[in-house]
Amino acid sequence: MTTLRLLLADDQALVRGALAALLQLEPDLDVVAEVARGDEVVVAVREHRPDVALLDVEMPGLDGITATAAVRAACPATRVLVVTTFGRPGYLRRAMEAGASGFVVKDTPARELADAVRRVAAGLRVVDPALAAESLAAGTSPLTERETQVLRAARDGGTAADLAAVLHLSEGTVRNHLSSAIGKTGARTRAEAVRLAEQNGWLLG
Amino acid sequence: MTTLRLLLADDQALVRGALAALLQLEPDLDVVAEVARGDEVVVAVREHRPDVALLDVEMPGLDGITATAAVRAACPATRVLVVTTFGRPGYLRRAMEAGASGFVVKDTPARELADAVRRVAAGLRVVDPALAAESLAAGTSPLTERETQVLRAARDGGTAADLAAVLHLSEGTVRNHLSSAIGKTGARTRAEAVRLAEQNGWLLG
DNA sequence: GGAGCCCCGTGACGTCTGTCATGGGCAGGT
DNA sequence: ACCTGCCCATGACAGACGTCACGGGGCTCC
Question: Where is the Response regulatory domain (chains A, B) (predicted)?
Fold first, then answer.
């Protein structure tokens, strides 16, 4: 078996370096590139053409899901393994739709990561079964495009007038979208709707 | 120089194992214990008596700050280095007050961690200068005990009546505390007050 | 003893919020 | 052509929210 060349993307330098140290312990794995931002992933993939790219979801510049799609388009030979802190159902779904080969949460045992990488490199899919079930149960996002935008803008706690100004909408329209989102999420407050949508991974982009 | 014995506490197993791998690369460092929960820290410290304990702040069971105080009380020979994802001013302040010897955010370069551990073990203090300045500027929390509790309870987006039921208070009293907290944080909404207070690290406990 | 702060509660006021009805415009599908 | 769904907007209404004034009780510190 030849050695596998890896790319590592995580915004936290300490975690990134630690993961590199962990993977370098394996004789058949070699970390050839590290990046801290989502928009640096594609250029690094183009330059190094790694066998597997390990991508975090929460990154500045570009989120890991969108970066996954970009990697698949730029270099189909590179498999993507998404490594994230939050096991949100929507993240998993959208990662797989974007062409990821694996999805691992950051509280899986450390010794399993190398095997996950090898399996992904071999063309297999790696997904936590419990998380997969949860993803199926939660289903796809019921929120419309605008509702998602409004909820995203409502995260920092602004008033309806603020959201209207940011989104160039009428204040009444904002409240209508919010009301609809509240109904779909089963919440009773806009803040609760934001929380529930975020927990389901419906607020990406 | 003798080898330093370390304890590692982080709720995410992958990060914990990766940090262990990173630190084991140093010949003079030895990870002798790993725990995933805050309440397991003290028992592990009592059993292994490490030279340095690396503690995350966000942990189930017991937060890293409180765990720091417990470690200092149980084994004063063990120095504490807090390693956290969020560089919130209140975290730093309260960690140092609790007896921590160092405070490092997770996006510091990986190669600096080992040096930070050694410096802490030598009795020095390790603090990011920029973060220290920010902590001084932000000052201590202006929120009263009740205001903090109310803001904490308001995080999941419940109505004032919900908070009143949880905290066994009158609904009007809850709104009074919220109003006061909103004024002190400079916010215009309860949600914004929650966000600002959380960013400052005022919502621990 | 008073002064100060925090706690709890009440009542009232204006504003904001969440909901509904209703309208129009624009895309997609049978 | 029709229906359906999403978008935007308006107006109206009950309820929740944020603010203030005002009480009372407790505590500490001078």
Answer: 5-121
Minimal-distance CA residue of chain B relative to A112: B14
Helix (H, G, I), strand (E, B) or coil at A43: helix
Same domain, A133 and A183: no
Residues B5 and B51 sit within 8 Å (Cβ to Cβ): yes
- Residue B50 CA distance to nucleotide D13 C1' (Å): 66
CA geometry: angle at A93 spanning A108 and A129, to 5°? Answer: 40
**Residue B204 falls within a domain, yes or no?**
no
Shared-domain flag, residues B43 and B129: yes
Residue B167 sits in the same domain as residue B125: no
Cα B186-B192-B197 angle, rounded to 5 deg = 70
Q: Which residues span the domain enclosing A107?
A: 4-138
- Helix (H) or strand (E) holding A29, with range, is strand A29-35
B22-26, B141-145, B150-154: range with lowest mean pLDDT: B141-145
Domain membership flag for residue A205? no
Q: What is the pLDDT of residues B81-93, one digit of tens each?
A: 999 999 899 999 9
A70-122 confidence digits (pLDDT tens)? 999 999 999 999 999 998 999 999 999 899 999 999 999 999 999 999 999 99
Nucleotide whose C1' lies closest to the alpha carbon of residue B174: C8
The reply to whether A8 and A81 lie within a common domain is: yes
Is residue A62 located within the same domain as residue A120? yes
For the segment B2-17, the average pLDDT, to the nearest whole number, is 96
- List all nucleotides in chain D with at least one atom under 7 A from a protein Cβ: 6-12, 16-21
Question: For the segment B97-129, what is each residue's pLDDT rounded down to a tens digit?
Answer: 899 999 999 999 999 999 999 999 999 999 988
